[in-house]
């Protein structure tokens, strides 16, 4: 497969309208800067006004399709033997696993990959939970439904680009609104009226353009792990650079007879102002040395800085997007995947510890998402594109130390598996809508707002998976 499929910046439809924007001066961030300053006619979620009433969601997208069957593994001897027989070359020995001391429906004792020592610690400290077999669904479906076409099944399964979009938008309907917006953006839209003091967008991406944060009203402010991008001419210390910078700012503030010129000047000025606001707010925040200096770690370090600066920025709710790639493990999986999971675990653990150091660990909930799970059987060296997969949720507000959802039977050798659509491509038993709606309820959305954000939720009887504390 192309290396592009491992990139956290991969985005189609098609390249998100030509990569909509590519700096702080992009259409997305410019328009968002204007919209965040406007009075928005939206329903209030009834969020209280206390200074510490802050909550954030952090989506950690694992681009390429994480082989979560080796992230969360049955550890009891009999079930593990079935797992080894089914996974063949991909199987991990029991000595390579970290038992969690917890079982899941239907009562399997489970362990985490040995490279995820940080996640094991957080799980046992009850700051992390797993959710088994999540995927894109319009409604509950059985294997018979899948094979006979008697239930509506999502289009373009096993396709990287299509399933990335499906995960980020939950756009499994014909409604253009849901196809063109992401559920993170729709969550922010629902709460916008309660964010009167916000100086920047509620939506901040540390990993470029994404569908997850596109709302009807709001778009994400894109920034890097080292801060918000400043105007490309620079604002250096030399007299010449300062003169050039101030001259440009003066031109932007001048009145224009042409409506388009006036709009461009206004949006450009606001974009520069937002970048300056962010950079000034984070200037004296912590270094957060518990977080590793990896690509994902650096993104999460900047999220921690923005959380610390929340009061200066006037924020009560924020939705962040971070990402890492490399999970399209068709070959050399055992070695590659171990390093990937170790990186996720250390970054997430360091992030949690950093938040704990500033008293914000119970205010921030992080969760993973990915294109899809992968085949349970081996292609000889790795695994191929699948469907349902396991995910983790972390933070002080998570009812941790538990494994939620239905874990698939590890034996696919008999051919009678109730969830095997072929090669161990699990038919999901929990939908993205159920997953997101549970966090949205904690975030402050009302039932009616949640159903507006997640169009397929009405098709599921269980609309709160109970992994968040009240």
In short:
The chain is of the alpha/beta class and 470 residues long. Helices cover 35% and strands 14% of the residues.
Q: Could you name the key traits of this structure?
A:
alpha/beta, nine-stranded mixed β-sheet, globular
Low-confidence stretches: 10-50
Q: Please give the alpha-carbon distance between the first and last residues.
A: 43 Å
Shape: globular
Percent helix: 25-40%
Largest sheet: 9 strands, mixed
* H-E order: HHEEHEEHEHHHHEEHHHHEHEEEEHH
Rg measurement, Å: 22 Å
Q: Number of DSSP strands?
A: 12
**Helical stretch tally:** 15
Query: What number is the mean pLDDT?
Result: 87
Structure description:
The protein is an alpha/beta fold. It has one domain. Helix content is 35%, strand content 14%. The chain contains 15 helices and 12 strands. The strands form 2 sheets. Strands 1, 5, 6, 7, 8, 9, 10, 11 and 12 form a 9-stranded mixed beta sheet that branches. A 3-stranded antiparallel beta sheet has the order 2-4-3. A hairpin with a 3-residue loop joins β3 (97-104) and β4. α2 crosses α10 (259-282) and α8 (183-191) runs antiparallel to α15 (447-453). The relative contact order is 0.21. Residues 10-50 have low confidence and may be disordered.
